[in-house]
Amino acid sequence: MGRHEAPPRPASILVAIASYGASNRRYLEQLIETYRGFSQQVSIVVLSNEPKDLGADVEVRVGLPSPDPWSLPFAHKALFAERQDEFDYFIYSENDTLITQANFDAFAEVEETLPEHCIAGFLRHEIGPDGALHYSTVHGSYHWEPATVQVIEGEVFANYSNEHSAAFILSRQKLKHCIASGGFLRDPHVGRYDMLCSAATDPYTGCGLQRLICVSRIEEFSLHHMPDKYVGRIGVPKAEIDLQLAAICRHARAGVPLAELLRPERRVPSTARYDRCYYSAPLPSAVAAMPATPARILSVGCDQGQTEGNLVERGHAVDAIPLDPVIAASSELRGVTTLPIDADDPLGRIEPGAYGSVLMNFYLPFVPDPVAALREAARVIEPGGRVVLSFWNWQSLRETVHRRRERRSFPDRADAGDFARSGIHRTDPATVRRWMQQAGFRLDHITYDVPSGKEWLSRLTLGAADRWLAPTATAVSAPIGTPQG
């Protein structure tokens, strides 16, 4: 540094924390204490529905953007717009999600390397009683997006489709971009996320920025959800996610694109409910459909692999065509052998008669021609084998009521079930039976997954009510080669 050069000015940060009521007071105080310890110049504003005494150095803004209590998180937007020229960085978070000095420093470092249209993002984790980390962001239909995987300045980045991490960081430049886009200073709203989550995702979902997570340094890009209340309920242990990230890094650094068996997102903008799930629970009806003695089984559309892993535990040899090579790491952890993915011809490399059973694992609703897919499956089944088709039962009363209610509030959801408009076929017992018959199979039986607590009604009706009780089911063909009856 020259004699007359001034030392560099520490970066300045405006932090906005949404804090409704008093239930998370201890987490809020921990957040404030953490920000007070930052090496940067930090100004803290707490957005609240009621007055709070949090110290002389903490500004408390009281008031809701709309009468809906869930609108409180949107209050940070006007604040950031007012002070966009006063700070270098802007942090928003809910009052139970911790951003540490290490998180911020890692963000500031990689942000310098990202293209202008990209922004560094975060996952969220929780800590179990044994001290092990669990990624609570990871569940349901959310997944690593293969098309976003890239190497930048030696680090591997990818987007995770669950863009809600309850917090974000914006540089002044990126904040100005968001404001200019017209997607930031909007009234409180909902979409694929509820109102609470929408406030924390708008920079990525409504302002033209692409979020990228630095997966090769994931520990620095994961935020602690301090209540740890989802451990054992939703989320995936770090040890399993590390296997997925290793697969991403391996493909990225080798320059090998990550294939996808199908695009999991459906064309129903207001919800992710119709997207293909990546973390399905074991499906009892599918397990029950398999032979009692060890057999060779092919699963088409394997996700995390809990159903397939259950079959492995029962002595079956299970091969799988996974949804993508990343989720394949999870199914391999459960003893499943995964095969290469060719979305145009998934079964093309498989020898005729190679398997005793083929499980179509919630796969057919997402392909344009389910009958053609079933006919191709027949080629790889040995004589006396079966095709087993797991499906989401749209005829169930719960599903019927749910869809009737949601269509009243979200008209676009009326398209769900029409493949041309939504990208998903309706599946119910009659539809599945018709697909099987058109493909040349004879339906042997359907087993329904009756929810716990409803078994008494199933027994009372001798199973006649099952098709209206069960949200999922599995159809099983007659043995291949048996005469049509």
UniProtKB/TrEMBL annotation:
<dbReference type="GO" id="GO:0008168">
    <property type="term" value="F:methyltransferase activity"/>
</dbReference>
<dbReference type="Pfam" id="PF13489">
    <property type="entry name" value="Methyltransf_23"/>
</dbReference>
<dbReference type="InterPro" id="IPR029063">
    <property type="entry name" value="SAM-dependent_MTases_sf"/>
</dbReference>
<protein>
    <submittedName>
        <fullName>Methyltransferase type 11</fullName>
    </submittedName>
</protein>
<keyword id="KW-0489">Methyltransferase</keyword>
<dbReference type="GO" id="GO:0032259">
    <property type="term" value="P:methylation"/>
</dbReference>
<keyword id="KW-0808">Transferase</keyword>
